[in-house]
Amino acid sequence: MTEPVRTTPLAPEPHAPGTKSGNGPKQTPLEQMGGTTGLVYTALPIVAFVIANASFGLAAAIGTAFGVGLAISVLRLVRKEPLQPALSGLFGVAVAAFVSWKTGSAKGFFLTGIWSNLALGVLFLLSVLVRRPLAGIVWGALNGTGTAWLKDKPSRHYYDIATLALVGVFAARFVVQQWLYDGDRTGWLAVARIAMGYPLLALAFLVVLWAARRSGRRLKALAAKPPTGSV
What we know:
This protein is an all-alpha fold. It has 2 domains: about 30-105, no CATH class; about 105-225, no CATH class. It is about 70% helix and about 0% strand. The protein has helices at about 30, 35-55, 60-80, 85-105, 110-130, 135-145, 155-180, 185-195, 200-225.
């Protein structure tokens, strides 16, 4: 009697770099930040602060900005939308309002954002100098692709370029907004904060996406290449 042929189950094929395993659709970084509505929600407390400050003064502006931020968080909770962007935004509004209250100046509302951009710019620049570009590390963390690219010099170079693009965004924000802050142009500070927020970040993200795709294709090709000396 012939023994039945045993078949060995095929091992699951590894997912390509830049993608996540699993059957569910992968969330984009924009979706992880709360989607397009999240971008609008970010601007609302700033606009409310400037309008209330011009109409009713600093104390009313602080209360209005925080109230709008709180209302957005509640709205997200009711609509079962991602809460993390709303809560981080509410925390940012609270810190900005506190600084504005302590300085006694409406322009103080923007001070933490200005210096945060300087700190982020320095941090991202240092990451390039120590050969650990943060654009690649953050991308890998968001998409679950890890840091295998660090062992590949060309891939690291791609992410160096992407990280420097982000450094440019942070530097531009700091220079322009600090200049407006020194000139007491509170209204224009709000315009600059919104205009140089996600729109500039979206441009830099295109460079990050380019780097991720170039690195992903390269790592995939290297993984498919037979080892040296194999028959």
